[in-house]
């Protein structure tokens, strides 16, 4: 499944990038993230998601693939739970947009188990909603910098 889009953030690009690199700010920004801790070259993550057929607890890893301040933050996400698994490769580009930031994201995701039975339309809709929640929370975290 391919997911791609843009989000307009009111915070400056440097503050957005700094929030992405701050584990506490990142945890507060990730929807449903109950635990995020350093683990090798990335993070162990535990999520509790309460959205439709995606509902449940998931755990796995977030591995930073490339972080180039202040323009790019690319990572791999691997999560597994009762409803199945999700593996995604995410690319982001942070561009100055006036006094704020335009965050472009693109992800290639693979799902298995019951998650795969949702179909791309439903899974894409849930993913888009979670990404919007993340971008709003990330912008709030960046404003505090």
Q: Which keywords apply here?
A:
7-stranded antiparallel β-sheet; 145 residues; 50% strand; 28% helix; 7 strands; globular; alpha+beta; Alpha-D-Glucose-1,6-Bisphosphate, Chain A, domain 4
Please give a structural write-up.
This protein is of the alpha+beta class. The chain contains 3 helices and 7 strands, in the order E-H-H-E-E-E-E-E-E-H. It is globular. The chain has helices spanning 13-21, 23-29, 119-143, and strands spanning 2-9, 33-39, 42-49, 56-68, 72-81, 84-97, 100-112. The protein has one domain (2-143): START domain (Alpha-D-Glucose-1,6-Bisphosphate, Chain A, domain 4), CATH 3.30.530. The protein has a 7-stranded antiparallel sheet, covered by helices on one side.
Would you summarize the structure shown here?
The chain is α+β, with helices and mostly antiparallel strands and 145 residues long. It has three helices and seven strands; from the N terminus they run E-H-H-E-E-E-E-E-E-H.
């Amino acid at each position: 499944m391919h997911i791609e889009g843009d989000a307009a953030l009111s915070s400056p690009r440097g503050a957005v990038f700094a929030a992405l690199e701050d584990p506490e700010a990142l945890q507060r920004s990730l929807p449903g993230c109950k635990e995020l801790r350093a683990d090798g070259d990335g993070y162990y993550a535990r999520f509790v998601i309460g959205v439709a057929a995606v509902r449940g607890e998931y755990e796995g890893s977030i591995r930073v693939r490339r972080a180039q301040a202040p323009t790019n933050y690319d990572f791999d996400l691997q999560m597994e739970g009762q409803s199945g698994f999700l593996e995604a490769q995410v690319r982001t580009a942070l561009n100055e947009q006036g006094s704020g930031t335009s965050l472009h994201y693109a992800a290639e995701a693979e799902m298995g188990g019951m998650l795969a039975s949702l179909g791309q339309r439903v899974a894409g809709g849930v993913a888009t909603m979670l990404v919007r929640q993340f971008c709003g929370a990330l912008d709030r975290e960046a404003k505090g910098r």
